[in-house]
Amino acid sequence: MAGPRVSIQAEDFDLSAEVARLRAGDAGVGAVVSFVGTVRDVSEGAGVSRMELEHYPGMTEKAIEAMIDAALQRFRIHAARVVHRVGPLAPGDQIVLVAVTSAHRGEAFQACEFLMDYLKTQAPFWKKEHTPDGARWVDARSADDAALQRWGIAATGNAAG
Amino acid sequence: MKVFVKYFASIREALGPGEWVELPEGASVGLLRDTLIARSPAHAEALARGRAVRAALQQLMCEETAVLPDGAEVAFFPPVTGG
C-alpha cells in the first residue's frame, strides 16, 4: 500500500478511495474487510444534535500504529488502514474507518474486529455530545473492555472505576 | 525535577490544557496525582481518588506505579470513548 497507515483528521474520508489505495499493487489480496463507524442521532435515550471529538495529538497516532503492528503479528493480513475523524461532527457523519486486506476473508474479518475493539478502549479519543439537556462527555462502556479481553488482552480497565 | 502534565476532555475543561509540576527525583505517577490533588480545590475534584482517571507517560498508557524521568510528559484523562 502507498501512503500512511494512520490518519487523524477533521475532514471526511472516502471508503472506496481508501480501499483502492490499501489494495494497490498487491495482487495477492483476496479479501478486503472494512468497518465504518457513524454518528447516531440518539444516545442513552437523548437526541444528539452534534458531537465533538477530542484526542491526544502524538499519543493517538502512536497508539494506533502499535495496534496495527499487533494485528499484523497476530493475523495473516497484508495491510491495514485506520482513519479517525476529530473536531465537530453531526448525526450521520462518518467517524472512523478500519480497513484490512488479506489473502482470505477469515483473517481480515478477525483483524478488523480486533482493531476496532483495541481502538475503542486504548486510543485516546473522547466524545462530547450536545443534547437538548446540554453538552455531556460520553461515558466509557464496560462492554468495550470485555470485547478486548476476548482477544486475550487485558484492557487497562478503561471503563471500570 | 520537573514534569509537564497534560489534561484532556472533562479534566482539561476543569484544569486547563496543562502545567509544569516540580517533584522529587524518582517520583511516581501516583505521587504526581497526589501532588496535583493538593494544589487546588479544582484539582482535588477533577483528579479525586475513586474517580475514573487514566494516565499516560511519554504518550503510552501507564499505571500509577510508573516512575517519572525528569522532563517527562504525563497526561491525565477520563476513560477513552473513541471509535
Low-pLDDT parts of chain B are none
Structural category of chain A is alpha+beta
Rounded to the nearest angstrom, the radius of gyration of chain B is 12 Å
Described by the principal axes of the CA atoms, the overall outline of chain B is: globular
Using brief descriptors, characterize the structure shown:
heterodimer, A: 161 residues, 4-stranded antiparallel sheet, 4 helices, 32% helix, 34% strand, B: 83 residues, alpha+beta, 27% helix
Textual characterization of the structure:
The complex is a heterodimer of chains A (161) and B (83). Chain A is α+β, with helices and mostly antiparallel strands. Chain A is 32% helix and 34% strand. Chain A is built from 4 helices and 10 strands, in the order E-H-E-E-E-E-H-E-E-E-H-E-E-H. In chain A, helix 2 (59-74) packs antiparallel against helix 3 (105-122). Chain A is globular, with a radius of gyration of 16 Å. Chain B is of the alpha+beta class. A 5-stranded mixed β-sheet of chain B has the order 2-1-5-3-4. In chain B, strand 3 and strand 4 (60-62) form a beta hairpin. The longest helix of chain B has 9 residues, at 29-37. The radius of gyration of chain B is 12 Å and the shape is globular. The model of chain B has no long low-confidence stretch (mean pLDDT 97). The A-B interface holds A 37, 53-56, 58-59, 62-63, 84, 95-96, 116, 119-128, 137-140, 156, 158-161 and B 6, 8-10, 12, 50-52, 54, 56, 59-61, 63, 75, 77-83.
Please outline what is shown here.
With 161 residues, chain A is of the alpha+beta class.
Task: Please write out the topology.
The complex is a heterodimer of chains A (161) and B (83).
Chain A: E1 6-9, H1 15-23, E2 31-38, E3 42-43, E4 46-47, E5 50-55, H2 59-74, E6 77-85, E7 87-89, E8 94-102, H3 105-122, E9 125-131, E10 134-137, H4 142-149
Parallel strand pairs in A: 1-6
Antiparallel strand pairs in A: 2-8, 3-4, 5-7, 5-9, 6-8, 9-10
Chain B: E1 2-7, H1 9-15, E2 18-22, H2 29-37, H3 41-46, E3 54-57, E4 60-62, E5 73-77
Parallel strand pairs in B: 1-5
Antiparallel strand pairs in B: 1-2, 3-4, 3-5
